[in-house]
Amino acid sequence: MVPDHTRTPAGTVSRLRSALSLREAPVLGALLVTLVCAAMFVDNFATERNTGFLLLSVAAIALMALPMTLIVITGEIDLSVASTLALSSATMGVLWEAGVPIETALWICLAVGLAVGALNGVLVTLCGLPSLAVTIGTMALYRGLAYVLLGDRAVASYPQTWVSGVRDTVPGVPGLPWTVLAIALLAVLFAVLLHASVLGRSLYDIGNNAEAARFAGVRVRWTKFWLFAASGLVSAGAGVLWTLQYGTSRADTAFGLELQVVAAVLLGGVSIFGGVGTVVGVMAGVLLLGSLRNALQLLGISSDVLQVVTGLILIASVVAPSAAARLRARRKAPGPRPAPDPDDRNRPVAAPSGEES
Amino acid sequence: MPEQQPPAPPPLALDGVSKSFGSVRALRGLSLELRAGEIHALVGENGAGKSTLVKTIAGVHRPDSGQILVDGETTAFQAPADAQRAGIAVIHQEPTLFPDLSVAENIFVGRQPRTRLRTIDRALMRRRTAEAFARLGVETDPDRPARGLSIADQQLVEIAKALTRRARVLVMDEPTAALSGVEAERLFRVARSLRDSGTALLFISHRFDEVFALCDRITVVRDGAFVSCDPTPELDVDTVVRRMVGREVSSLYPKEEAQVGETVLEVEGLTRRGVFTDVSFSVRAGEIVALAGLVGAGRSEVVRAAFGVDRHDTGTVRVLGRELPNGRPRAAMAAGAALVPEDRRLQGLVMESSIERNSTATRRGPLSRLGLLRPRAERDAAREWGERLQLKYGDTTDPVSTLSGGNQQKVVLAKWLSTRPRLLFIDEPTRGIDVGTKAEVHRLLSRLAGEGLAIVMVSSELPEVLAMADRVLVMHEGRITAELDRDAATEETVMYAATGQQPRSAA
C-alpha cells in the first residue's frame, strides 16, 4: 500500500532533463547549429557590429513574442500585434508633429496600446468570440486607424539623441544594445511569471482544460482579458522602440510582422493548441529566425527567399511536435493483452479492503 | 447455457470478449447471444461495462481478446462502418442528428440514393423515409429539419435509419432515460413490432419496470463480467439487483452515525430558467444529503449553480450564514465550499498535467510565497494527500492521465479535501471506478461527515444514495419533488418521485 515514490535519488538530473523537455531541445539545438555554422561560414556574421544589428532587428519581435507566448499557452492568439505596433508608431508621429515631447508621447502611445489590447480582451472574453476571428478583425482595424492618423505620410524628424540613444550599447559590453538588455530582463520577468507564479500555472490549466480550471476557481475570462491588454501594451512599447530605432513613423510599418511573432512562438515549442510552452524556447525561436534571416541576408540572398524560408520553418515547427508525438505513441503502443481465464466469468467480486489493478 | 439449439445461428453473439483501458478492465471475458425475434435486456450498475460493450458491438472499440460472431461467423469490426454493414444499429440515449439537414437527409446521410445523372434522388429518399415511418407508426414529415425534434423523435429517426439499412440487430443504450412515459410507451410499441418481424434487440436500461415489461431475457453484468442470463419470467427485481450488486445492499456502504451540527448550507428559491426551478434545501454539519433523480433532472446543475460555476437567475445560496455572490467559485471556496465535479476528465482534472499540479490546483495561493510557487511544498502536499487517500502512483510528476479511474478520482478528492472545506458538493462520487475504490470513497465520505463536514452528494446509483444519505432530495424535471428521510427512502419511493409518478400497482 505504500506508494512507490521513493525512486528520486537521481531526481535532480531527471528534473533537469524534463525541464529541457523534448519540445525545446530541437529549437535550442537548431539555434546553436545555426550560430556556429553562420559564425564559421558567413563573413561578417560574428562581428560586434552585426551582433548588435542582429539583436536589435529581433528586439520588437522578441518583445511582442512574450505576451504572445502566454496568450497561445491559454489556447488563444493575438494577430493584431503588428497593427498595434503601427498604431502606436503613428500615434507617436502625430504627437511629435504636434509638438508633444517624446517623454510625454511615449506614455500616450502605451495607453493607446493598453486600450486597443483591452478592446481585444473584451471582444474575446465578454462577447465570447474566437480570438482568431477577433484579432484578424482588429488587425485590419488598428492598421486602418494608423492610416487615418498618418495617411501615407512618414514622420521622420525625430531628434537624433533619441534615435541613436536606442542603439547605444551597454557600457563595457560591445555588441549588446541596452534596449536588448532591457528586453532580456523583461523576458526573465515573463519567465518567472509563467513558470513560477500562481498566475502562470493557471495559464497552463486554462490552455489544457479551461473547464477544469474554472471548476478549480481560476478566473478564466478575467485572466484572458488581462493577457490581451498586456499584449496591446507591450506591442505599443514595441511600436515606440521601432519608431525610434528606425527614426520614422509610417502607417504601413511592420506590415505582416505578426506572422513572424507567431512563427517564433510556435518554433519555440509552444503548442498552437495551448497548454504547452516555455519562455526559453520562444526566445530561442526568436533568435533562430532572426539569425537565419541575418545570415541569409549577409550571404546576399533575396528577401523573397527569406519569406519562403520563414514559411517553411513555421510549418516544420507545427508539424514536428505532432509527428514526434505520433512516433512516440506508436513506439509505446501496447501489444494485445493475454486472453483472460475463461473461468473468470463468475469470479467473486473483490472484497472492498483494497484495490487491485 | 444452451438449452435448445436454435435453428439458425444467432445474428450476433459475443464470446469471451475482454477489453481494457490502461489498468481498467472494462470487459472481462463477456459472452452474450442476441437471438432473432427477441428483446434482450442488459442490466448492470453504472460502470459495469455496458457502454464499453455497446461500443464494442458498434465497432468503436476492438476487443483485446474474444470473438464477435455475426450469424455464427467470427468477424472483426475495424470501424463502425463494418458493424453497420453487418446489420447492427445502435440507438443512443441522445442521438446526434445534423440539425440543419431534413429528417430524410439525416436518414440517408453518407449513402444517399442517386438518380441516373448521379445527383441525389430526393424523391426516393423521401419515399423510403415515409415507408419506414409508416412501419414505425410515426407521423413525422420527412422534409422537416431535424432541429427542434424531441429526443424521442430523434431516436425514432435513428430507428428509421436502421430500418432503411435493413438492420437485423438493434442496440438501444438507455433509450428511455430522457423520455416521458408516453414517449417511452411509443418506443416500446416500436420495439415489440420490430421483434415480431424478426429483429434482435438489445435493450439497456436501469429501469426495472421497463426491463421486466418489455424484455424476453435478462443478462446481468458486473464489473465487466457476465453474471447471469435467464428468461424474464424466471426472475424478479430483487434477484436481479442482488446479482448486479454482488452482495447484500445493506453491507455495501458503511455509513456511520454522525453528530449533526449547525446549518452549513442554505439554498433558497434557486432558479435557473429552463434548467431548475425554485430549489430550496439546507444541509447541516455531519449530514450527507443526496440529490437523486434521473439523468437530466437538473441535479448537477443545481450543485454547479450553488458553487458558482454556473450563474443562477434568482434565489440565494448561504454558506455558514454568508450569502455567496452569483457565479463566483472563488467566493464559494473562500466561504469553505468544495465541488468534486461530475466529469473528472473534463471538469475535475487537467489530464495532461501532473499529479502534484492537479492535487494542489485549489490552493496554490497558500502553498506559494510572495506569489512564487514552491515546488517542494507542492510535492510534499501532493505526497501527503496521496498517502492519506492511499493513492497508487509512480511519481508525483507523472501526468494524471496515467492513473486508473479510481486513482484519478482520488486526485480530485485530494484537490478539494486539501482545502479543508466545511461543505462538500460531490457529484457522482464513484462513477466509473472499480468496486474496491468505490468502497474506499464511501468510507471516506462517511468518515468526513463524522468529522463534521456537510456533504451534498449527487448520485445516479440508487444503492449508493440509499446507503449513504441521511436525507434524500429527489428531483424531477428541475424541481425537488420529494424530501425523504433515511427511513422513508427506498428504491421505490425515490424512483416514483424521480419519474414524477404516483405509486401504482405493477403493470
Automatic annotation (TrEMBL), chain B:
One Pfam family linked to the record: ABC_tran
Entry-linked CDD domains: ABC_Carb_Monos_I, ABC_Carb_Monos_II
Record-linked Gene3D superfamilies: P-loop containing nucleotide triphosphate hydrolases
Domain named ABC transporter: residues: 12-248, 258-502
Entry-linked PROSITE patterns: ABC_TRANSPORTER_1 (PS00211), ABC_TRANSPORTER_2 (PS50893)
GO molecular function: ATP binding
Record's keyword terms, sorted: ATP-binding, Cell membrane, Membrane, Nucleotide-binding, Repeat, Sugar transport, Translocase, Transport
Protein's recorded name: Rhamnose transport system ATP-binding protein
Organismal lineage: Bacteria, Bacillati, Actinomycetota, Actinomycetes, Streptosporangiales
